[in-house]
Amino acid sequence: MEKNSNSPPFLPPPPRNIVFVVYDGYQPLDLAGPMQVFALANRDLPAPPYVLTTATVRPGHVRASAGPDIVVDAGLDAIADADTVLIPGGPGVDDACADADIRHAIADGHASVRRLCSVCTGAFLLAAAGVLDGRRATTHWGRCDDLQAAYPKVTVQPSPIFVNDGNVWTSAGVTAGIDLALALVEADCGYRVAASIARKLVVYLRRPGGQAQFSETLLMQERAGAAEFSSLMAKVASSLHKTWSVDELAAEMGQTSRTFQRRFRLAMGCSPFAAVQEVRISRARVMLETTTSGIALVAGRCGFASEEQMRRVFQRKFGLPPTAFRSFFGQDV
Q1: Three-state secondary structure call for residue 115
Q2: Which helix (H) or strand (E) holds 21?
Q3: pLDDT tens track of the chain, all 333 residues?
Q4: 287 vs 241: CA distance, rounded Å
Q5: Which of 90, 239, 315, 320 could form a disulfide with 325 if both were Cys (CB 3.0 to 4.6 A apart)?
Q6: CB neighbour list of residue 45: distance below 8 Å, 6 or more residues apart
Q7: Pairing of strands 162-165, 70-72
């Protein structure tokens, strides 16, 4: 039988319902960033792939932590029809964790939804509902210790931008919610759709989940007393080709080696050798993520004695050799 050429070869899949659960004191960017990603997918494709629903425990006005209130019509029963549930973080999350209605709705929905996600401190609500027990998860780096202490059954990973364990996704602070949403859209709609959205938002498509939330070099610089050594570390970063022995570092500071090591460790929380090594690793990581330079060239420019030494350092630090690190985290350049 001849096919009717006017009929489409197949029908598009029904749109997936993305439910955003909000509460008084939620962080607006945690909601608006991911929501914009899904909204742009709807705008870009002939058949919109998503229905976007905002739900709350008691429909009506919901106060944001900053900016105007929003009006939410749907209650938490919307979770029952959700494909994906996304929970933003915010300063109001601790009060939300104390609300049994929200906890129970999330716990009940966990079994029926395809994906259960959080942004930033929204992970605390997942943990309070028991969803994260026995799972790996992340949240904003500033509250990872709090999450681990409050919920010891959760394996908290402070470094990644987002973590996927089963059907549960948790992401780090604020803009990491955009990274998470892009990863979800790529899984649903393909690379080209996600890449188009990333271009419109002027963000990287692939800032992979395993990438660090923050620079450990910057974290060292935030320590009390670190200002004394800021100029020295800037000089190290600008001339990584040098060996930078303890004696050389001490001479730069006009101190004896013994005095320098004692004062440096007190201020920076690590040895001078470890600090210099961290600067080398950070520079090498950036080069691997953003350039196509050969491994030997990267090792030389970052001051490693050899390609093999850099390989050993990366294996210890990241659990990956430099070539594998680049394949996971490198951008297309």
Answers
A1: strand
A2: strand 16-21
A3: 444 445 445 566 789 999 999 999 999 999 999 999 999 999 989 999 999 999 999 999 999 999 888 999 999 999 999 999 999 999 999 999 999 999 999 999 998 999 999 999 999 999 999 999 999 999 998 899 999 999 999 999 887 888 889 899 999 877 889 989 998 998 888 878 888 888 788 665 555 445 555 555 545 554 556 678 878 888 898 899 899 999 999 999 999 999 999 999 888 888 999 999 988 998 898 888 778 899 999 999 999 999 999 999 998 887 789 998 888 766 554
A4: 15
A5: 320
A6: 189, 193
A7: unpaired
Closest CA to 31 of 41, 40, 19: 19
Half-sphere exposure of 262 (CA within 13 A, CB side): 5
φ and ψ at residue 78, rounded to 5 degrees? -65, -25
Percent helix, strand, coil in the chain, to 5, is: 50, 15, 35
Cα dihedral value 201, 204, 210, 214, nearest 10: -80
**Residues with Cβ < 8 Å from 273, sequence gap 6 or more?**
246
CA 258 to chain centre: 40
Which alpha helices (H) appear in the chain, and where do they start and end?
A: 28-44, 93-97, 100-110, 123-128, 144-150, 176-189, 191-201, 216-221, 230-238, 246-253, 257-268, 272-290, 295-301, 307-318, 322-329
Assigned token pair, 48: 């919109």
Q: What distance separates the 2 farthest-apart alpha carbons in the chain?
A: 93
Backbone angles phi, psi at 254, to 5 degrees: 70, 35
Total residue count of the chain as it appears in this document: 333
What is the spatial distance between Cα 111 and Cα 320, in angstroms, rounded to a whole number? 34
Element (H, E) at 86: strand 84-87
Amino acid at 171: S
| Residue 266 to residue 190: CA distance in whole angstroms | 50
CA distances from 200 to 29, 39, 41, 197 (A): 17, 12, 11, 5
Residue 171: other Cβ atoms inside 10 A: 34
* Cβ proximity of 59 and 73 under 8 Å: yes
